[in-house]
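Ticket #4471: complex job returned nothing on first submit. Input attached below:
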Amino acid sequence: MIINRFFPQFMHNDTGGKLLLSLLAMMVVIVVVFNMMIPESSPLHISTYMVTLIGKYLCLALLAIALDLVWGYCGILSLGHAAFFALGGYAMGMYLMRQIGDRGVYGNPDLPDFMVFLNWQELPWYWYGFDNFGFAMLMVLIIPGILAYVFGWLAFRSRVTGVYLSIMTQALTYALMLAFFRNEMGFGGNNGLTDFKDILGFSLQSDATRIVIFTLSAIALAAGYIASRYIVESKLGRTVIAIRDAEHRTRFIGYKVEDYKLWVFVFSALLAGIAGALYVPQVGIINPGEFSPLNSIELAIWVAIGGRGTLFGAVVGALLVNYAKTYFTGVLPEFWLFALGTLFIVSTLYLPKGLVGIFQNRKKEGHPTNNPDNVKSEGAA
Amino acid sequence: MTNRINPQTNYLQLIAFIILFFFSCNLFANEISPEENKLLNDAVSNLLVKSFKNKTQAVKELAAIDSPQTIVILEALLKTRLYYVRSNKNVVIINKKEQQYEIKSAVDNTALGVVKKKAIKKITTNNKLRKTIRTILAQKKILNPDLTVREAAIKEILKKAEPALLPTLQDARNKETVGSQQELLDLSIALIQVDNANTETRLAAIKVLGASLYPVSKGKLQQLTATDGKGKTIEKNQDVVDAAQAALKKINGKLKFFGNVETLFFGLSLGSVLLLSAIGLAITFGVMGVINMAHGEMMMLGAYTTYLIQQVMPNSIGLSLIVAIPAAFMVSGLFGIAIERGVIRHLYGRPLETLLATFGISLLLQQMVRTLISAQNVAVVTPSWLSGSLVINPAFAITYNRIYIFFFALIVFALLLAILKKTTLGLQVRAVAQNRGMATAMGIKTQWVDSLTFALGSGVAGVAGVALSQLTNVGPNLGQAYIIDSFMVVVFGGVENIWGTLVAAITLGVANKFLEPWAGAVMAKIIVLIFLILFIQKRPNGLFPQKGRSSGGH
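Support reply: We reran it on our side without changes. The output follows.
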């Protein structure tokens, strides 16, 4: 197929991925053109609000890919993935906070508003360096990465698996949420970080900046997808799938199961951190609510509904559920939790392979290894 | 989070109101005889003089009249609520309402309607007069036949013990027959005598202060041992300083001890709450291996059942709680059966899916309560036999509801243990948990056992909800606050071992409360969570792992 020329070799069999990336590219072009070229009076105009909204969805889709990588391919259901997302977001938020400078309500050039409010005299040490964009971006990767490494190293080495691991990750994000709610932590407590002004000198309110961040989100999603696909198609990916399907057997064959799991877990946390960092400038706020266990569980349901172990299914699930959430919370706020609850039940009972699975079933079985139903292994059961 | 109603405070307010009501009835209900009326009238009109000297005389005359009404008049005078009507010189007690003044006769309390400010004039007092009035009031109250009045009076005196009261207090001490009141009188006498000139009297007083746990005695002793800027004690008498320091040390030692006892009790109380919330989970998760994220909502349903039963029988709140226990068990148990039959049955062997599906159920149940009842918290009333506290000494008092819930948790635990160990159902449950295939082969209806086990776990959660309704706010989010803690307790204690759950719950509760004083409430919780996360890495099977073959099968 001629279209394969545009994609790397490891994606030639990935019809869903090719379709997804093509649609993503088309959407970016359409959104940018319709936002910038078409006058606001025209019904075809895409408002900047809409651009930001889609940008948000794209970040969440990247987060969903991160979870699908560990859950769908490695059998680790992390119920604390939103923690990595939020940590990346906080790193970005700290940079944006420092960019405010003396334009805050209190006009203090050295301290963010909330610290002035709490009568702090000087910047805590862990805020040093966040006025530098490069340093902040490094932290977006390093902080979630280190947390994932430490947690994963401990958990995988002691062979905590399955439900236990899920509960542990949930406790982790819960503990972080409680910690970030404390004013003494120096991250703005309850209110979090907000009131951002600009990024690298460009105003966050301007249409152009928003379009750029939107495009960056799309690029990050595409890059995240390609990288994840590369990993799962590589030799490492094959081993990871083997671990998912038969952990003990893989260990007995001689693979260091812990190392593989840890590697994938950390990579996934990095993706989540990047997603969080791109999310924050678009929504304009980051607060401890992002750590709430509910967020992480909801994330799992996006992946489950889209279809685990497919990567593009995660993207589809994230986009659909979040669009539905925006729609229903606007129209029928009461209905949303009913709908979400029902989604959880229906998708686990009747859609074990997700929405993508419905379409895949119609085709011939192309990729047995991508079948998430094999999770029934001795490790997870 | 806003609009939180605390049923307990409301109830306490109600009780306070009732006490006040009876108290005031006592004062006012006394028929005022004509002679008394005449005496009062004369004394009161003497208050209208200008000079404070004469006014003091009038107050003393008034105080000499043997009538409860004098207390009312003097208190009104002290609070500048005693006025006279300009037109007829009648002395009245006013009650300011917005811009208007309700007046009633100072002599016999008859309401005289509402007047403008211009029509009345205040009867003024000065500092000296007020001091006299306070002393007179204290004297009158401290000898009052009503114990509640005496108690309130002595507590008022303890706040500021005036040396002038010493003879009155000693007199009262000699007449007093109630033990607790005697103690308070001794304390107040000692507080005054400690400033006496005679060293011996002072040392004796310090001894009394040292034996008391009331904050005032500690304050007084601190004052005696206080140093000036140069490290020298302000008090010149070295014997007194030494004795005060020794007494202070004794008090601090006792306070520390009772502080620890109180922390331990709070820890046990938190532990019993954790035990109640985790014990149902210990059955569904521990015995059946089912992750029920809707467990917290089963507790919420139990709490709401309590609320609904109180709505149905508002006149017998005390009984409603007893009725609520089996009712909550039934409601949550039936929901449990429905969940097991409808959802979980189809997901055995797929624990992660069970987790997600039951989480969906928890969202549905929360929203159901929001839609059907209210998104706000509801007020569950605490029955009288659960409110109030057991005062052991001034430094240590425990509330009855916490004591009851502690024992309630232990009873529930014992019952559950008995069901699992002594009944046929328990035997079958354990058989299915250990080896499903073999149990089926022996003729046990495993599906039926599954349903009943799940119903049992859910029902116990409902009973926990009844207890929780007496401790926290009842709202749609009640369950979410406990679910992570409950899982932590079960995992910490060791799955498949409900003794482990007991030990884990109590340990975590006590640890949490002992961490709180130096780490803060939230930080203590975070520390405990992090400890648990690390602990599970070290011992994945918890404190008391199941021995034998089945332990590896998870």
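The first helix of chain A runs from residue 15 to 36. Closing as resolved unless it happens again.
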